[in-house]
Design goal:
The protein is α+β, with helices and mostly antiparallel strands and 241 residues long. It is 34% helix and 22% strand. It has 3 domains: 2-94, Immunoglobulins (Immunoglobulin-like); 112-170, no CATH class; 174-231, no CATH class.
């Protein structure tokens, strides 16, 4: 009995120690650069195999101890890990996948009435020569302009896809709900600010674009307007600057 009591005491002490070491820690997953809260990110404690999923604001709660390693995974974002060195609330920034369009072959559907192409030549740099009746007469013709035309069209289509992807991201970042996290405007003034200062694609993509700095500069300009002007909802300036 004394031996059994000793083992029971050790087991209880060990359980108490483990329960003390494991604490519920709070975190938030954000998109790098934009600070948009990311929903549906899977968070896993690689030491205990416990897991959690971030909510619509990117927040989550998971049990962890010091020196536990957390793994963050989400669609269209690069995986990342975090070593727990403090049990305080923390933020994690994930990078978007940069290769979403790589290897994608852009195709379009065109009606028969829109196709004006040589039946014996479809983009290749050479073609057999024919007479006016369409009969082969020997020799080959080099037509480099066909390739250049197709290549330019493909580049334009790829650029359009990239622009649409960026516009979707801009609309999310410059929503009234997200912008209100950075500037002390509400109601009509906030909506007017968003409409007036939502940036164009080229501005948002610029290497020197920093969201907080951009919003701060725009806020200073906005506050210099007459109070009555700050209540006016202009036509949306999205993608027109």
């Amino acid at each position: 009995m004394p031996k059994f009591s000793l083992l029971l005491c050790v087991a209880l002490c060990l359980a108490a120690f483990l329960s003390y070491g494991q604490q519920a820690v709070k975190g938030r997953v954000l998109e790098d650069k934009t600070r948009v809260g990311l929903a549906g990110i899977h968070v896993q404690n690689l030491n205990t195999k416990q897991s959690a999923v971030s909510d619509n604001k990117g927040k989550f709660i998971i049990k962890a101890s010091l020196n536990d390693l957390l793994l963050f995974k989400g669609f269209a974002y690069q995986n990342d890990t975090l070593l727990i060195t403090k049990l305080n609330d923390f933020e994690v920034f994930l990078l978007p996948q940069q290769h979403m369009l790589n290897g994608v072959e852009v195709k379009t559907r065109e009606g028969p009435s829109l196709i004006f192409s040589d039946p014996y030549f479809h983009g290749q740099t050479t073609a057999y020569q024919t007479d006016r009746a369409g009969n082969f007469k020997g020799g080959v013709a080099f037509r480099f302009w066909y390739w250049k035309k197709d290549e330019r069209r493909k580049q334009r289509q790829e650029q359009m896809l990239r622009n649409e992807e960026t516009k979707t991201q801009i609309a999310k970042v410059f929503s009234t709900a997200n912008v209100s996290n950075y500037i002390p405007l509400r109601g009509t003034e906030l909506e007017a600010f968003v409409r007036r200062y939502t940036p164009a694609v080229n501005i948002y993509r610029a290497n020197d674009f920093v969201l907080v700095k951009y919003l701060n500069n725009c806020y200073k300009k906005f506050m210099q307007l007459h109070p009555s002007q700050r209540q006016i909802l202009p036509d949306s300036g999205v993608f027109k600057q």
